[in-house]
Amino acid sequence: MEKLRVELGARAYDILIGPGLLEQTGALMSGLGPSGRVAVVTDENVAGLHLNNLRAGLAASGIEMESLVLPAGEATKSWPHFSRTVDWLLAQKVERGDLVIALGGGVIGDLVGFAAAVLRRGVRYVQIPTSLLAQVDSSVGGKTAINSEHGKNLIGAFHQPALVLADVDVLGTLTERDFLAGYGEVMKYGLLGDADFFAWLEKNAPAMAAGDQAKRIYAVKRSCEMKAAIVARDETEQGERALLNLGHTFCHALEAATGYSDRLLHGEGVAIGCALAFEVSARMGLCSQEDPSRVRAHLAQMGLKRDLRDIPGDLPGAEKLVELMGQDKKVVRGTLNFIMARGIGEAFVTSDVDLGIVHKVLEESAT
Ligand code: GLY
Question: Residue 167: beta bridge partners?
C-alpha cells in the first residue's frame, strides 16, 4: 500500500493507494477514531458493485453502516439531491465528531463533501473514490460542489476530507470508456508539470489501461503526489492550483454545449481541452508545434477523443463556445484566464491569450 500525505497543517490527511483497501476500511480508518456507526452515501451503480465489500470492511472492525443510494449521473449534483442528502444525514443523527463516507465517483464525492461541509457547520468525511477520475483528482484537495443552471460546480465549498482510500481493485469494474475518461486527468498531470511522467505514460499507459496493476498504482500515486503538493501550497486556488485546470476552460464550455450528457464525459472533455490548449500555445509561439502533435499522438494511441469533431451530434460555433467559457470560475473581473504551456510539463496561467487564435483552433477542431 502506498501512503501520501496532504500537508495542510491541522487539516492534513492521508491518501492510501493500493489493492484490497475496501475490505480493510474499518482498520484503515481507525486513526480517525470512528464511532461504532458511519453514514455512507453512494450511487446506484456503485452500490451494486462495492457496497457489500465496504459493509464487510467496516464490520470487520465492529463498525455498522447506514447507506443512502442516490441515482447515478451528473444530474445528481443538484439542489434536490443535495437537500435530500443533508436531510438524510440529519435523520441518521450524524454528529459533529462522526464520519460520513462518500463511496463513488466525482459526482458522489463532490456532493457528499459539500453536504459534510455544511452539516452542523462541518463534519468529517472519508473519500472512497471508485472511478479513476475521482482517485486521481476530485477526491483529493477538498473542492466540493453541486451544479447550478448557470454552470458546473458553481455552488460549493472548500472542505478537506479526513482520509482518501483509493482502492485500485475497483478500477477493474469500470467500463473502458470511463477508465479512459479518467485517464484524461492522469495525462493532465504530466502535461502540466512533469515531462518525465508524460514520457512514462507514453510508454506505459496502454499496459496500464489493459489492466497492469503495478502501473495503475504508480499512475494514481504520481497523480495524487502532484495534486497533494499543489494543494498544500495553494489550497484555495489563489495561484498555482489553477494549473490543475489545464484543458478545463475548453472542457467546461464543451460540457455545457453538450448538456453535461453522455455525449461527452468530463475526462474526455479534459483530453480534448489539453490538446486545444497545447495547439493554442503553439500558435501563439509559446511552445513548439511538436508539443501539440505529441499530445494528439498520445491521445490517438489511447483511443481518446482529441477534437470537437469526435463529439457525436451538433455543437454550437466557436463564438458561442467562447461565450460559454465566460462562465468559467477562472474569470476574474471579466477577464478569462487560460492555462497555456511553454512545453510538455510547463503549464502556466495567463489572461494574455489571443481569442482570434482560440476561435480558429476551435473552428479547425470542429471540421
Ligand atoms: N480539479 C481541480 C482542482 O482540484 O483544483
Answer: 18
**Residue 241 near ligand 1, beta carbon < 6 Å:** yes
Q: What is the pTM of this model?
A: 0.95
Is the model more confident about 206 or about 153?
206
Helix (H, G, I), strand (E, B) or coil at 289: coil
Report pLDDT for 124. Answer: 97
Dist. CA 35 → ligand 1 center (Å):
31
Which grid coordinates belong to 281?
500555445
The CA distance from 162 to 127, in Å, is: 8
Question: 16 forms bridges with which residues in the sheet?
Answer: 3, 165
Report whether 232 contacts 209 (CB < 8 A).
no
pLDDT for residue 295: 98
113-148 residue pLDDT tens: 999 999 999 999 999 999 999 999 999 999 999 998
Q: How far is the CA of 137 from the centre of ligand 1 (A)?
A: 6
Tell me the three state secondary structure of residue 48. Answer: helix
Q: Which long-range contacts (CB under 8 A, 24 or more apart) does 283-289 make?
A: 283/354, 283/357, 283/360, 283/361, 284/340, 284/353, 284/354, 284/357, 286/340, 286/341, 286/342, 287/341, 287/342, 287/343, 287/346, 288/343
32, 163 Cβ separation under 8 angstroms: yes
Q: What is the pLDDT of residues 168-191, one digit of tens each?
A: 999 999 999 999 999 999 999 999
Whether 365 and 308 have beta carbons less than 8 Å apart is answered as yes
Residue 221 has pLDDT above 90, yes or no: yes
33 vs 69, more confident: 69
- The 3-state DSSP class for residue 134 equals helix
244 CA closest ligand 1 atom index: 2
